[in-house]
Design a protein that fits this description.
There is one protein chain. This protein is α/β, with parallel strands linked by helices. It has 6 helices and 9 strands; from the N terminus they run E-H-E-E-E-H-E-E-H-E-H-H-H-E-E. A 7-stranded mixed sheet has the order 2-3-4-1-5-7-6, sandwiched between helices. The radius of gyration is 16 Å and the shape is globular.
């Protein structure tokens, strides 16, 4: 792995999609820009773009301006420009298979029915890039598109916000120490106990 890390949050551009379940990847990037004191004030590779020095690394933060299902070309163009291998890439996305309040880091794997990930896998030609999945639940929904493009209720929003905060803490660990260390530290479930406080399992 070289000294550049590419971090892309997935979502759909436009005010009408803000706060929807499908845009939690954007929310993590937004929180990271505050934590790392960097602005996404340029458009590059078909994405809102920012870069910042972190320890001995250069972090590239991206929010594609294309719609979710066309995210792959953005990642492929950026990866080719920086001559990155897959282990230097982290994609942050929603996941219906995880309950709200859960995050999971993985070093690779299938798209799991996520069209944005599927497009990235196709365009990169590999599924061996890191991904950070934010649980949005499913409520046994069959109409997945309508569900992910809607906004969570207040209870779910609190859980998702906590997971977004946890995810923003996990990204710098991935960047500095690698995916295995980040997985060991952050692949835990966030739950709300009877007092309304969040804890980790």
């Amino acid at each position: 792995m070289n000294e550049i890390r590419l971090i892309a949050g997935l979502g759909n551009p436009g005010l009408e999609y803000q706060g929807t379940r499908h845009n939690v990847g954007f929310e993590v990037i937004d929180l990271l820009t505050k934590k790392l004191k960097v602005e996404l004030n340029r458009e590059k590779f078909g994405a809102a773009f920012g870069q910042v020095k972190f320890e001995d690394k250069k972090l590239i933060l991206l929010k594609p301006v294309l719609f979710m299902n066309n995210s792959g070309q953005v990642l492929a163009t950026a990866a080719n420009f920086y001559k990155l291998t897959a282990d230097g890439i982290l994609v942050i996305t929603d996941d219906m298979a995880l309950e709200p309040g859960m995050i999971r880091l993985r070093a690779g794997g299938s798209a799991g029915g996520h069209n944005g990930l599927a497009d990235i896998i196709e365009k990169l030609g590999t599924d061996e890039f890191g991904r950070l999945r934010i649980g949005i639940g499913s409520r046994n929904q069959t109409a997945g598109r309508d569900y992910v493009l809607s906004r969570p209720d207040e209870t779910e929003r609190k859980l998702i916000d906590t997971a977004v905060t946890e995810a923003a803490e996990a990204v710098p660990v991935w960047a500095s120490d690698g995916i295995e260390t980040a997985m060991n530290r952050f692949n835990r479930r966030l739950t709300m106990d009877d007092s309304g406080q969040f804890g980790k399992q």
